[in-house]
Amino acid sequence: MQSTYNSHVKRIVVGLIVIVALGLAGKKLLAPKSFGVYGHYRADAIEEAAAIEIRHGTNASCLSCHPFEAQIHLSGKHSTISCEFCHGPYADHAKNGKKIGTLPVKTGEEIKILCLRCHNRAIQARPGEVIKTVIMPAHLEEQKVKTTHICNQCHHVHAPLRYINHAKRIVGMQEAS
Amino acid sequence: MEQPESTLSEDRRQFIKKVLKGTIAGSLLLVLPAGAGNLKVPEQIKGIRNRPWELAKQNFAFIVDITRCIGCGSCCVADKREFNVPDGHYRTWVERYLKDFDDAVYVDSPKGGLDGYQEPRTDIKKEIRDTFFVPKLCNMCHEPSCVQVCPVGATYRSPDGFVLVDSDRCVGCAYCIQACPYSVRFLHPVTHTAEKCTWCYHRVRKGLLPACVEVCPTGARKFGDLNDPESEVTQILKGPGVLTVLKKEMGNWPALYYKGLRREVV
To answer: Of B160, B208, B215, which is closest to A82 when you measure between CB atoms?
Structure first.
């Protein structure tokens, strides 16, 4: 009796050990490498996420090769505007310091749409201390120009008050004399 | 006989010098963090490049200043370009809130603000009391519900505080999309894996600001390290401005703060 009872226990114990061993082996084989280092996920995924290539540079990356645009852009009120917002991402233009494609330059009506994304007063929630806004076409009428005028006929897109201040200087001089 | 021999040894010396220089330069490239070696862009977040990344010692925060957002949608455009986000899906978007004198709230977000807000709303007959824009993105919760529900360990909160998706492991069950209280996740139509805003983890690790922060013309989006007492986000968090998080009662403890947020925003 005693011996058969022992053999039962043995069988159960050996069976359990086999199951546990199989389970551990299966886990070892099936779980991806680095799984569970920091938690219930693949630790290597962090480095993979960090290694994705950037598509946007910064304004500094654009302006380092475009000194002429840089000196205008940085001199005016638009200096905080990202080059890449209007022209497209750096990655479509340059790679390893070499030009690989031409970025679009907005013209005509596109410019007006782009300007009014920010400067349209008809859209409320644009506080005066943050941004100067205009009502179109009232602004054109006020300035006594044709209502078909595009913004960049008076405003330099990179430094919006460049020509205006220049004109004011000339007119101011005439008024003074 | 003397002359050629000396030039030969000179060549050999030069060759050995060049090999040594090359080896040193090559091994340096391997030691430096990925991407920083060939990146000419100046660092925007100080102290990230040229040192090993310590996962456990990071504490980043994102602040959206509602009082400065003008709803231009630059952030949405940059985000779409940075990640080639498929049409109709948004990692970040801008909502427009209108409030009338009876405190009724009207919210819209045409194309997620991708084309900006060109036209005012004309469908509301009542007088509007308050209008503001609310940019939305991942809240990078300290207790993320999306991570809790993921059955395969594909979404995780890394020790540096970023909630990310491992697309190799994601099976596209979309549990996380249902679990996220902020609806920032979507299923990519091609890969059928979950995607979300990562606060541009790949840029941050290269010492650059997230793309949306970089392009924001008014400085409505701020990103920085809370461990740095000089950083802008630390200064704002220490300051007197009204700072709130979205859906605080959910207990997700977001790392995304809103400055000047109205109570109507959900």
So the answer is: B215
Q: Which of B67, B206, B219 sits opposite A127 (nearest CB)?
A: B67
Same domain as A46, residue A94: no
**Quick one: A109 exposed, middle or buried, by C-beta within 10 A (0-12, 13-18, 19+)?**
exposed
Domain ranges, residue A26: 2-50
Q: Residues A63, A78: one domain?
A: yes
For the cut 60, the answer to whether the pLDDT of residue B37 exceeds it is no
Which chain A residues are Cβ-neighbours of B217 within 8 angstroms? 78, 80-82, 85, 118
**In the prediction, which pLDDT does A144 show?**
92
Instruction: Kindly determine whether residue A57 and residue B71, on different chains, have CB atoms separated by under 8 Å.
Output: no
Same domain, yes or no: A123 and A161: yes
Mean pLDDT value across chain B = 89
Q: Are residues A69 and A122 in the same domain?
A: no
CATH number, domain containing residue A100: 1.10.287
Touching B: A residues 60-99, CB under 8 Å: 60-61, 64, 78, 80-82, 84-85, 88-89, 96-97
- Per the structure, the count of domains in chain A is 3
Residue entry with tokens 């750096």: A90
**Residue-wise pLDDT tens digits, A110-158:** 999 999 999 999 998 898 899 999 999 899 999 999 999 999 999 999 9
Please report where in the chains the tokens 């099936």 appear, as a residue. Answer: A30
Look at residue B170 in the predicted model and tell me its pLDDT: 96
Residue B99's H or E segment, with its range, is strand B93-100
Q: How many helices (H) and strands (E) does chain B have?
A: 7, 11
Which of A124, A132, A135, A136 to mutate to test binding with chain B, by most B CBs within 10 Å of its CB? Answer: A124
- Mean pLDDT (whole number) for B207-233: 95
Separation between Cα atoms, residue B254 and residue A150, nearest integer Å: 44
DSSP H or E segment with residue B97:
strand B93-100
Number of neighbouring beta carbons within 10 Å of residue B194: 25
Query: Which residues of chain A from 9 to 28 reach within 8 Å of chain B, CB to CB?
Result: none
Question: Are A167 and A120 in the same domain?
Answer: yes
**Residue B31, pLDDT score:** 45
Q: Which residue of A has its CA nearest to B78?
A: A85
A80 and A111 inside one domain:
no
Give the long-range contacts of residues B241-244, CB within 8 A, separation 24 or more. B243/B63
Is the minimum CB–CB distance between B199 and chain A shorter than 8 Å?
A: no
Instruction: Tell whether A52 is within 8 A of chain B (Cβ).
Output: yes
